[in-house]
Amino acid sequence: MGRPKKPATAKRREGNPGKRKLAGTVAVKLEKPPPLPAGLKPKGKELWHKVTAHLVALGRLSAVDLEAVRVLCDTWQLYHDLARYGNISNALFKTKSGYMQEHPGWRMRQKAADRLEKLWRKFGLTPLDRVGLDIQLGGDEDEDEDFERKR
After folding, report:
1. Phi, psi of 20 (to 5 degrees)
2. Sign of the CA dihedral 108, 46, 119, 137?
3. Quick one: what percent of the chain has pLDDT higher than 70?
4. First and final CA of the chain: distance in angstroms?
5. Which residue of 37, 57, 88, 112 sits 20 to 30 Å from the alpha carbon of 147, by its own alpha carbon?
6. Does residue 150 register a pLDDT over 60?
7. Rg (CA), the chain
8. H/E element holding 13?
9. pLDDT top residue among 100 and 10
10. How far is 27 from 25, CA to CA, in rounded Å?
């Protein structure tokens, strides 16, 4: 799979040591959370408000990102709609011929979970990806200072 591409802003900050041409266009950051798009279901609406507010606060959301956030919210809703297949007792069923078979809903839920994980990574919504994108949450500075003092 390889190492993820470093953002152009990070390359500019480091002085572009490879001297390669950097991306010239920069997306305009949104100053406030965007309005809720039509057609989102309840769980998707909750996630929309939560994620867009978080990304705007970090300065990481632009207008071109909104469709990807919409896909994230729709996938989150699908994942919750398929929640009844989350436990193992609903994951398998007996066919007419008597064989045990995996329920299609179980597989769909697993695929939705995989898509969610990939989308969360794209937006830096997992702890490891926040480190990779150089995103610090409130309170992280105190932990760093405590660590340095103890050394």
Report:
1. -85, 160
2. negative
3. 77
4. 36
5. 57
6. no
7. 21
8. helix 8-14
9. 100
10. 7
Q: Are 120 and 129 a contacting pair, CB within 8 Å?
A: yes
Report the interhelical angle of 42-58 vs 66-81 (nearest 10°): 140
Phi-psi map region of 32: left, alpha, beta (phi>0 left; psi -120 to 50 alpha): beta
Among 54, 104, 99, 108, which residue's Cα sits nearest to residue 81? Answer: 108
**Angle of CA points 17, 3, 16, to nearest 5°:** 15
Under a CB-based contact definition with an 8 Å cutoff, are residues 63 and 55 in contact?
no
Domain boundaries, the chain: 28-130
Over the chain, what is the mean pLDDT?
A: 81
**pLDDT (mean) for 7-15:** 73
CB of 61 within 8 A of CB of 52? yes
What tokens appear for 129 in the block? 């990806």
**Can you read off the two tokens belonging to residue 2?**
């390889």
Q: How far is CA 82 from CA 38, 41, 87, 106, 141, in A?
A: 22, 14, 11, 8, 40
